[in-house]
Amino acid sequence: MLPEHLHRLNAARDSRRAAVIVTDLDAASSTLFLEGENIEETAAPAVESALRTGKSGMAEIGGRPVFINVYLPPPRIVVIGAVHISQALAGMAAIAGFDLTIIDPRSAFATPERFGQTRLLAEWPEDALKGMPLDAYTALAAVSHDPKIDDFPLKAALDAACFYVGALGSRRTHASRVERLTKLGLDESAIARIHAPIGLDIRAASPAEIAVAILADIIQALRTRDVTATPRGADNRGPAR
Q: Per the database record, which ranges form the XdhC Rossmann domain (predicted)?
């Protein structure tokens, strides 16, 4: 690996930004792309597909054989609310390969007895999120059903461009939420990114079924996200060869 590539990969890892190295097998040369950089037209389909799937492997670009190495930040889920849905979601998320943290200031709910080894923060989200900033590889699911707990992290997730932002509640509940978030300074396009009611519409009824719907929605959002947008605060210097 070229020293410049190693340097940029380490920087990308520290900032939780995805990267791809494309090696031309005939020319024995390589190019590094960071997510959000401009990608030459012939390489774009293969590189963007790799960024979405996270899978390394052989491909063909411009009629030439290449090997694509993909380096994705570990995706994570932040759940607001230590409720029954969260209990089911915690186990499912681990199986699907997501790091998961549950935040709930109600210490009677956020207990190891209810959640085992799941990371729990019995704090207000305003305080908890200071130590774990949200980013483009974070999904936020607000399921406490309490505006005092849910509204701040929802705004924080939208401001941080999280790849998924979802909130529990009916359409009527969400209409009230929209009014509150508008007063907090969010515009219509930002609020429209919230998946509400949360999860895929599979007619889920039980907490476990709702958790399945939420996780499926998160996975779909991760695998179909816009990989052409430059992450906030990222240094976009173009591909390194």
A: 77-218
